[in-house]
Amino acid sequence: MSEEAITKTSYHIPVGPIHPALKEPVYFEFELSGEKIIDVNVKLGHVHRGVEWASRKRNPIQVLYLAERICGICSYCHPAAFTLAVENACDIEVPERADYLRVVQAELERICSHILWAGVAAHEIGFDTVLYFTWQIREKALDLTEFLTGNRVTKGIMTIGGIRRDITPDMLPRIKRDMQFFKDNFEKLRHIFLDDKTVKMRSQNAGILTKDDAIKLCAVGPTTRASGVKKDVRTGESYFAYGDLDVKCITPKDLTGTVNGDVYDRIIQRLLEVKQSIELIEQCIDEMPAGDIVSEPKIPKLMNQIKKIEGEGVGRHEAPRGEVIHYVKFDGKSENPYTWKVRAPTYNNILPWIPMLKGEQIADIPIVAASTDPCMSCTNRVAIVKDSKRYELTKEQLHKLSVEKTRRLMK
Q: Could you give all domains of the chain from N- to C-terminal order, each with its CATH number?
């Protein structure tokens, strides 16, 4: 066989939906030439729970608990975005102190999420010692979460018009002590991930997402900021208390002076955001105003107010993985939402996998895929089955159905 014929030979391999390197069901089809990836296709739809449909049988307070369970790691950001959407639709004013408390919870969840991601990333390149070290740090973050909310994962802290639990003066020493613990261990994490030769060899120039591709494919969160796109809901839209705080959109350029958009930059991005979250929590604790933590403590009275509302609202929140959007509509006839739609950040970060994986080696698939911190349970919707056969919608059919649904909602 000639050398030219060998170079033109390619073959396909499936990865997933169940695979040791994938923490949730997702199916990849790779076309390979030797060890090199020349094309990739992603197929979703293995996880669908009917959460949005279930909301139509529940009032907004009950929906909060559904929103919490969209994702265990993002159990604060989804109810936060849903709450913002309801407050937007119903013109509910949130007390200033509650806005500061909401920021504390949001940034603590960001620390938990990014530290967990760092451990998973280390595991994907075979550095399990670092995995255990990050878990030790995250355990402290979960302990603090339990101290503030009474829960470690599903926090039950958000409510419409405010927040359910205050931070009392006797709790401040514990919070400050834990923030110092995170700062002390941040330097160790920074040294391991940014200076270790093995980590650099596995992450530098791997899974590159250019700035143009990040913009064109609508990437969000650390994935797009690591490519140099300054897109962050906390700075682009004033919500919670972020407008009063020293929060800015950061990129790897703030540390290294350059942006490559590779896995290494996505590591840098999340480490910088952990440091930023610590600083924001400390600023909130120092500057938090006095006052109420909820606008209407009587739930029946709140539900009666919502029942009279006819309108729609949108809630946007910068979750650890990127911008999460919740849309809700009320018809003025019931306290239950007429409709509820969730767009999680992973939905935006799926298409960027394709340019990131093309040209890479088979061995780089796990760390490149994991570098966007995907969450399939947040993203998957529904697989369509008719007459016991699954089928796919064309672009034109999907667009037609979307237009029809939009017109139905606007009636």
A: 51-358 (1.10.645.10)
